[in-house]
Amino acid sequence: MIILGIADSHEAHACILVNGKLVSAIAEERLSRLKTDSSYPRRAINRVIRDSGIKSNQIDLVVFAGKNNLPYLKILREAALFSVADWIKLQDEYWKPKLYLGKKLDEVDRFNLFKEKVKKYSLSDPYYDFIKVDPKSSKSQRVLAFNKFRAQIIEKHLGINAKKVKFLRHEDCHKYYGIYSSPKFYKKSLVFTCEGGGDDSSATVSIFNENNVKELWSSNTVSIGRLYAYTTLVLGMKPNQHEYKVMGLAPYSNKEHGKRSLDFFRTIEKNQGTKIIPKFKFNDLYFHTLSSLRAERFDNIAWGLQEFLEEIIEKWVCNNIKHYKTYNVVFSGGVGQNIKLMRKLMMNPIIKNLWAGPISGDGSLAIGAAWYAAKKFSKDKVKGLSSIYLGSSYSEAQVNQQINNYKFKVGHKIVKNPKTKTIAKWLVSGKIIGRFSGKMEFGQRALGNRSILADPRTINSVTKINNVIKKRDFWMPFTPSILYGYAKKLINNKKNIYSPFMTMAFNTNIKYLEKLPAVIHPSDKTIRPQMLKRKDNQEYYDIIKEFFNLTGIPAVLNTSFNLHGEPIVESPKDALSTFERSDLDVLLFNKIAIVKNKKN
After folding, report:
1. How do strand 212-219 and strand 269-272 relate by DSSP bridges?
2. CA separation (Å) from 6 to 17, 41, 106, 316, 401?
3. Which of 63, 109, 295, 482 is the one with CA 20 to 30 A from 579?
4. Alpha-carbon distance 439 to 561, whole Å?
């Protein structure tokens, strides 16, 4: 069976599953060049069909992740289009009147507040036409009408009968993604989801046993995902985009200074046996947090929030483990992207095995939907995540054509077929390299093929990348790609947990604290590695191995190939543009390198 999976929430994307095997997946933002694009992913759908070598009339089933979606919020595309000022306006002019003044407002009013701002983007989105057919009735009727409308869009776009389109529960898609993305498939696991919100819940607990998933508990009152998003806004950053910045900021404070913030967060909700429940009722998380913490410093707030997250989730997970006597844990949903939380769980002795898949939030829902559909509607065996390199690739001829057509404004020289040792020597000499090679990685993390590479041994790498390339917040750490066979030397990992996708943080081996300053969190000295096996990416592995031969360090600094606020590069043209607009020293393609001539 050939299944097309689609997710159209924030971080919209599409994937193709052929007889249980995931063959292609790509995010809409890589093609539209709009960060966290959340429109109907037309470009991504077209691309995965093309890259899979199939035709649309061969698709047996189309599955959307999510069946209770509010159409006007999809048209609004807040995660992609809103500035911090827009998010604050939404609180002041929509949520405050609705929650505090009792005004009867719904999603249409929310849309109308910003429709002029988003109009130029929305007119190209087929969802915008729903405005013309909106039944303007109850919420449930509007949701059903919108699902019918989405199916009709598929029929018009791909020529696939609308009867072949199905809508799957958001939370279930998270579960199946978490389970089948694991490289070590455990026959019995506890599966947790936690996020800002899904179709009907913000947290669930399920048990996976012999290929069956049974939900044990769910709740829509668990607010930790929403709390993290709104606190991100309180700190002047974008919800649904910048939570990772709050997590990176947290270690710069401590219990002495962050206690008051932690005490406040503890008033929001609490553990009760295997559940998380509210402590008391209040009108709104954002305004309640804003007023309660206005006398607290930004880093202390971040510390208190992260400490509360780890505290309440760890107890929730452990209470369920003790109750159900199941010691393998799969964690999915947006909260699962918090690598510090994953480190906390990993270090707990009661947890035997832990897994959080790459981009475990909404950015992987289409894959979860496709796997869920394969289990539910076919006899295909789900083959899981055999590779993360699921995106587009470009031939040598296509790359050369782009280079030949590009009008360079900076001096450069061309190096054909650079040897692996030459590339390693460039890194050793302090050059910063943008690598564009092979199939693009799926997810938020660059894992060697659309990466910026640098020497991890010197803090100068961080300074240069931050100041003239990435322009990241000063407190944010960079990460390493580590040769798998040497990972145990660089990090403390007593449980031998495999982390190939930069989804977990580890404590750094004390012997390497001074040897890897560019890839260790400056405050808490943790490290978030990509553990790389040669079979997964031979060319990239060999570069790191050659660097190891020259330096004795089996790792390189690896960060995503993009400028701050832009999606990761997808095409050679994107790579060339980023190369020219930054202070990258080398742009490395498969068989050609462009080296800037700094003398010009």
Report:
1. unpaired
2. 11, 8, 26, 31, 32
3. 482
4. 14
Residue 115's pLDDT is 92
Question: Is the pTM value of this prediction over 0.85?
Answer: yes
Q: What is the pLDDT of residue 472?
A: 84
- Rg of the chain taking only CA atoms, in angstroms: 24
Residue with tokens 């709390």: 227
Contacts of 406 (CB under 8 A, 6+ apart): 573, 576
d(CA 86, CA 425): 47
For residue 460, give both structure tokens: 């100068």
The amino acid sitting at 183 is P
> Strand (E) positions, 279-376?
328-332, 353-355
Q: How far is CA 75 from CA 39, 103, 383, 565, in A?
A: 7, 23, 34, 21
Strand partners for 531: 482
The alpha carbon of 143 is separated from its chain's Cα centroid by a whole number of angstroms, namely: 27
Output the CA angle 450-508-334, nearest 5 degrees.
55
Nearest residue to 222 via CA among 318, 316, 332:
316
Res 139: pLDDT: 86
Residue 324 and residue 351 in contact, taking contact as beta carbons nearer than 8 Å: no
Which two structure tokens, joined as six digits, stand for 309?
């997250």
Q: pLDDT averaged over consecutive 10-residue blocks of the chain (600 residues)?
A: 96 97 98 93 98 97 96 93 97 97 94 90 88 87 95 98 98 97 86 97 95 95 98 97 96 97 98 96 93 97 98 98 97 97 97 95 98 96 94 96 90 94 98 98 95 97 90 90 97 94 95 96 96 98 98 98 95 96 95 84
DSSP string for residues in 224-275: HHHHHHHHHHHTTS-TTTSHHHHHHHGGGS-HHHHHHHHHHHTTTEEEETTE
**Torsion, Cα of 448, 451, 453, 457 (10° steps):** -80
Which helix H or strand E contains 96, and what residues bound it?
A: helix 96-99
What is the distance between the alpha carbons of residues 464 and 468, in angstroms, rounded to a whole number? 6
Q: Can you say whether residue 593 is alpha, beta or left, with left for phi > 0 and alpha for psi between -120 and 50 degrees?
A: beta
| Nearest C-alpha neighbor of 7 from the set 180, 185, 170, 215 | 170
The pLDDT, as a whole number, for residue 138 is: 86
Q: Cα–Cα distance between 141 and 212 in angstroms, integer?
A: 32
CA-to-CA distance for 595 and 240, rounded, in angstroms? 37
